[in-house]
Please model this.
Amino acid sequence: MSRIWAVARHTIAESIRTKTALVFMAMMVALLVILPFKFNGDGVTLQSRIQGVLDLSITGTSALLSIMTVFLACSCLANEIRLHQIYMIVTKPIPRWQFFLGKWLGISLLNFTLLLLAAITVWSFTWLYLRNLPTFEEDRMAVKYNVLTVRYGAKMEEPDFANQVEERFRTLREEGRLDNVNQSGQAELRSQIDADLRKSWRSLGPGEYKDFTFSNMLVDRSDEEGVLYMRFKPMSPSGADGAEFQAAWQAGDHNDKDTLGPVQTGSFRAERFHEVPIPAWTVNNENVLRLRIQNTSQRETILFEGADSFEVLFDIGTFHWNIARAFSIVWCRLAFLAVLGLLCSTFLSFPVACMGVFIVLFIASSTTFLGEAIEWFSPKPLEKGALAMLKTAFMYTVQGILWLIPDFGRYDPASTVVAGRVVPLKWVIESVVVLVAIKGFLMGLLGTVIFTRRELAQVTV
Amino acid sequence: MSTDGTLVVHAVGLTKVFKDFWLRNRVVAVDRLDFEIHQHEVFGLLGPNGSGKTTTIKMMLGLLYPTRGRISVLGKAPTEVAIKSRIGYLPEESYLYRFLDARETLDYYGRLFQIPRPDRRRRVEQLLEMVGLTREARRRVGEYSKGMARRIGLAQALINDPDLLILDEPTTGLDPIGTREIKDLILFLNREKRKTILLCSHLLADVEDVCQRVTILYGGRKQAVGSIHELLSQENQTQITTERLSADAIERVRRIIEEEDGKSLLSITTPTTRLEAFFLKTVRAAQVAQTKTSGATSGGRIAGFLGGTEKAEGEAVVSSLIAAASKSAPGQETPTGEPPSQAPSSDVIDQLVSATRARPPEAAQEETETPPVTQPDRTVIDDLLKRADRPRE
Model:
């Protein structure tokens, strides 16, 4: 362990004395210090200003440190090999995997320190300075309850449609409509049937009402002033923009009169998010909230499409810890980039390794898009033969590669913090497990194998 | 210095072929090389540029893998991590970290050997003093001259007090004082600390001064191997060293040799001191005059953890270096640890001269010392003495 730590210390010293880390540190500090004073948002509301500062601070810090990590990881090992300094290391009693691990540890510790500095700076300027700037009362409430807060969005419980899907599928087969459909086509058909059933369940026809259930509502029911927020985005099935809906809703369990709240009505524009308050005491003793919603429109059907189109928000933590968790996820991304850079530098020169990592970074930022593109390339339901097999093989190969590269879009906490949403601990743990423990470890293992097996000396004949 | 026969390095059929991108054989750097390095010996690896010396060393250290054959170091494969704790390596170039200073450099490598902190600090200071860089310890290595960097390279090779020391061109870039110190250090480490040393060098005079056995490579193949004495002794000649002789005496000696023994007198010359000794004397004078320098100073004191004893500083050090340089000269035997043979008694020459009724030799005027003769062939002298005892006919 002492050898690993010695290499880590050495890596940190190298990054600072060769000015690589110092340059990025200076840029990061300049960004974080200048932004709160120079950025004005929409020029009217403090809410937009704070949200903009938070977004740019977290995103900018992540971007700067990502570039720094790529440069450091790709250079520290590749340059030691190129300048033959590695000769002095390999002839010492340190296994090559420990040297590799020490390099990663040094870069990751440097990132941790810089992220800690960034988190303290962002929190300080946001909480101590921006929050106290003068503004009108409505804006101040919005800042307090929508931005500098930590809310959890409970999703509605959906019934299990598996039986209904199988029943419909069986019906189609009995009708002989599946005879020419291949395996992947049948799977696609099943998912389509499921989507249709869910869409139907999430829609309210004119005059129709439904009861929606939300579990794990960890709120303080005794607080009579406590408020939850029903957040939703109504859509028109026809896709008509500008449509307007009328709805009535009542929170509480109709079987438990003590939790039944007042009936409320309202008018809402389609394609926009709306938030309406609900008393916290309408949650029952089992932390379950029931909401009855009726579509009081004459002709329009209301559709809640998408996982975040209908949720109930409640406070669940503090802004300070939310910032800390958000930067923890950023650290996990940087840790993955560090091991990826070191992997590339075990067999590539510095510039080529950088290029390789940036390509992977691009892929990681576009994983969702690429995954969908590959899905589009997959063989069609009625397609058979050699071409279909080739497409299937290609699809699985690319999917395997994409699996190894994490979806960085999934691990971007900036928008969550800006929206005043909680960055759950579960997300942090998932980041650590997926980015570091699994995918990072696999990359590191591959890098160690390459570094151990390659000849480090060049031909000098 | 005797060895106990234990093999420290053993190569059998060692071959290294470098291939190009298309896996075609392009360069045969080492070709079926067999050699052994015994414990407690100083072994020289010689050869012109491109003969495979450094490639061989790299295979010994696991930096390259043999194409064919095998090599073992300290009884294990070169890739074994455990043996590295017993090896010290000085590469042909000092591949140091330019952003570290000397103290940090040695401390870093010391940490890789897992030397405890108190020991590590002590060794670092002793090594810095030994290589004469204590004053420059806080300067970045990137600012060092080549010779200074070489000294730090040597220091890091000794930080772990290795059993096997591999030195690839150790005197490159060093001034004569530094070169002398390196050679004295090698001799000390071998004689007093019983370390095994592999020395790779072009500078044959340096190799001859310190090595016990050498092998000569050319084209990746072994051309010769053996002890210095075996390889260099000229069995068909005899060398006698005397005090200054008069011209008559020289002529009489020539006549005796040619007429009595039927041999030719190949040359009679006035020996010269070595340039190294003269250089050291000049530097000594400058040091005594306290001429300033921003380069390395003469260290000379072998680090205590390597078994060095306390020595006086400054002038006494240079004096010892001069004395050591003056004692060794080209054509002398390799340092085997045995005391040098006694010079022939002046009585013999007196007898020789008196037998021919020559004038006594004049006293020597110069301060130069002539190198002692080792293992002289006494056949001719005995014959001369016998003839000197017989009355002239």
